Amino acid sequence: MQFLTAIKNLFFLFYPRVCANCSQSLMEEEAFLCLSCFQKLPKTNYHHCADNPAFDRFLGKVPVCKATAYLYYNKGGLGQKLVEKIKYRGNIYLGKWLGAYLAGDMLSSGFFDDVDYLIPVPLHPHKQRQRGFNQSEVIAQGIASVTGIPVKTNILYRRKANVSQTRKGVYERWKNTEGIFDVKNSDLLPNKHVLLIDDVLTTGATLEACMQPVLKEKKVQISVLTLAIT
Ligand SMILES: [Zn+2]
């Protein structure tokens, strides 16, 4: 509970005083979610098992060291609601708080051991200007506040925006993301273990597209952490 109090205090100045899920007024000791909704967080606990459904999405496709997703993203569920509040309603403090909370919860599992950089999946600069923030970067900042691992936004970048993937099939989605990311400052990568951060893991095609240019560098290890998984 000491840890929860610490992260609550960290964001005390910013968070809205109603529950992000049920909109009830929060008690003084609650942050973002009321106790009842907080206890309903649909946690996967995948980080306790190396071979988990998030890891399996990359199996046989790209050499991922570790992969996990913290919440289930079910249609109409709490996981989806929280992601949408961050992404489309611009609640960046909720994103930072969730990042910090999941990092604290996962810390003793050793998932972050040996990770050198947190790299959020980049948005296209045009999209980021439009949205005003990158939701993956916000989550990564929350994780960094607890783990002390630096967030690197000067390595991976998006070369082109891709069209909405929501109506495409698996193969089309994969083709659609091929070659959209690249790396700069590649001298920062050799012998490093990078943890890619994204909001939602679906097919894994976007994260795979991020990994392709990174894996061209020598002796790089890549792991994946997303806030939620469909
Ligand atoms: Zn609530």
Biggest pleated-sheet summary:
4 strands, parallel
Evaluate the radius of gyration: 17 Å
Strand segment count: 6
Q: Write out the strand line-up for the largest beta sheet, numbering strands in chain order.
A: 1-6-5-2
Q: Report low-confidence residues grouped into runs of 5 or more.
A: none
Unique ligands: zinc ion
**Number of helical elements:** 9
**Assembly of the depicted chains:** single chain
SSE class: alpha/beta
Rounded to the nearest angstrom, the distance between the terminal CA atoms is: 30 Å
Strand content: 5-15%
Overall mean pLDDT: 91
Helical content band: 25-40%
In short:
35% of the residues lie in helices and 15% in strands. It is of the alpha/beta class.
What report would you give on this structure?
Helix 5 (92-106) crosses helix 7 (135-147). Helices cover 35% and strands 15% of the residues. The longest helix has 15 residues, at 92-106. Strand 5 (193-201), helix 9 and strand 6 form a beta-alpha-beta unit. The strands form two sheets. It has a four-stranded parallel sheet. A two-stranded antiparallel sheet has the order 3-4. It has helices at 2-10, 35-38, 53-56, 78-87, 92-106, 125-131, 135-147, 170-177, 205-215, and strands at residues 67-72, 117-120, 156-158, 181-183, 193-201, 221-229. The chain is of the alpha/beta class and 230 residues long. The protein is built from nine helices and six strands; from the N terminus they run αααβααβααβαββαβ. Bound molecules: zinc ion (ZN).
